[in-house]
Task: structure prediction
Amino acid sequence: MTENTLIFPTAKDDHKFVEGERDSFAMEEPKLPSAWAEEYFILMPGAGYASTGKLVLYPWQIEPLNAIAKYNSVIYCGPVQTGKSLIAEVAVWYCVDTYGFHGMFCYAKRDTVENVFQDRIKPTIEQVPRLARLWDGNPDHLTKEKITLRNCIIRVASALVKSDIATFSAGLIYASEVCKYPTADKDSERSNFDVIKQLRGRQEAYGMIGKKKEILESSPIEEGDVLHKEMFKSGVLNLRPQFPCPKCGRYQEFKLEQIKEIPNQQKVCDHDPDRIRQTEAAYYECVHCQNTIQERDRIDMGQRVVWGAKGETISNAGEITQRRDYNSVSFQWNRFVDYSFKFSEGLARWFEAQKTSDIVKIRTFLNEDMGEFASITTEKESTEWLRGKCGSYNTHDARIPEGVLCVLCGIDTQDAEFYFVLRGFGYGKESWLLDCGLIRCEMGQDQSPEYVTEEVKKRLYGKELITKDNRKLEISAGFIDRGGHKQKFVDHIVATIPFLYAYIGSASKINPLIREGNNGLYLGNTQNLSRIVAVDSAKDNWHLPENISNDYIRQFVKQYDREERDKEGNTKKVWIHGDDDHMRDCENYIQAAYVFIELDNYLFNVENIETLKDDQYVKVKGEEQEQRQQQQRSTEQQSDNFLSGIQDRWNKSGGMR
Result:
């Protein structure tokens, strides 16, 4: 007997432990999943991975993979072919090796179970040494019905077969491509149970308190699907990759709307996908400093990637402070995490999808390239309908549409940022969205109102508003939400920027659309203003640019009227709002400015608004109207950006036609 042979006494005979068994008794310091992966995991040939051999992680993959050691539940949401399944699978095998919980692996379809077992699971256990040591070599212990390892048992299930899940208890659950799981409202014949709830029930039955791990992964499909509900329920930390600008050092997520098209030889942005792709006619503009980010900058930026949540502050050193503890975390990314996916390619694909007016192609682009959920619902306008409003102009064009005669502004105030929209108006209330986006600006106790105001001015004045027929315009009027937060910053902004007024929403639907309150504040009937915006947006003369942002589309449709029945069976109209609808509020504030300056008196006579016909509408009259007109005249003397500027332009263009 050699010195390294262990003897375990039994009732019948001594048992000699083989090397793999001895290893299972060894006490090791647990490695971080990323370190475990790069030391032990091997990408097997024929397993469907993009490459083979030892795994080398990209910097952006490290934190999502390490998360399984910190959180009980981890969700991965990203485009196809960006390593989403790989990260999830490595995390799963790390848990198998490190924790030894019984496992349940669930896939969307029956045939997927067979294919994944034969192509991925079986070769991985057989050929990755770190995992092979947990298998005794018996082929009967390595089947898709039951995988028996030295430290745990694993079952592989289909989301279509309730009995696959119901017969086994597991502390580790892995659900793959969960957006494809059938649900009762989609397919009542195939699904009569909640798959994720069923899987979690298996964890409860496992009985090891606190010894649970859950991994969900999928490409997104639509708002309200299984993955979307899991990601955005209470108690889940939602993270996205943030990259530092090489010029100003501030962090931001790579977004489609920040990609700028480089004009053709005629100095025109023709939105031609082939030209943009072949000549790489695009660059990225930093959302903070507006400097150009080149393709060559992305590798260095990627080395310093930080996963941040909405509203969190990331220092230039990449540090996040004051993040509270969570048990669950989600990671969502788009294809721009891949250095080889160029900005020009992303812009070209977007124009290709949009120019077809094919809803399926637009949704596919959003899902499979941008990693975003599409929004569809029977109770509000779909995002696809809104994208159909996109016209032949672009917010990055050097000239705005020549029909624009007046520009109005709406700004919604948040804790660490402002949302804003600029909309131009022409004859017959034809309108064009000219610009929209975020103005990121910390507004903590130590921040000065002067700094915040300069950040807002920088963005609003950042682009000259020159029409295609060479008329230079300026913003004539606008409202900024004062609400219940950040009052001192908003007050300084409206005191400094002459065309802006402070707005507070009124809860009563019988109030005027907009009226002056106390201390220079204006009270707006947001509900009815939103209804006017809804009516206008349905008209053919209400335009959006080709490069409209996903955030705008998603947020615009968050406000709508829904019919409900009361206990007596009477139908009533309920205004639905809230839930991240900031861009829509900006449009509401623009409508308030439109009413405030009585712009319809210049453009055409007042028309009846269908959505307001059942509501009591009170117009500003008498003393209130006179006070407002006096304030308008005072403002005109201070700045030519207001009604005097509008009147001058009307006189020059010949007035009403």
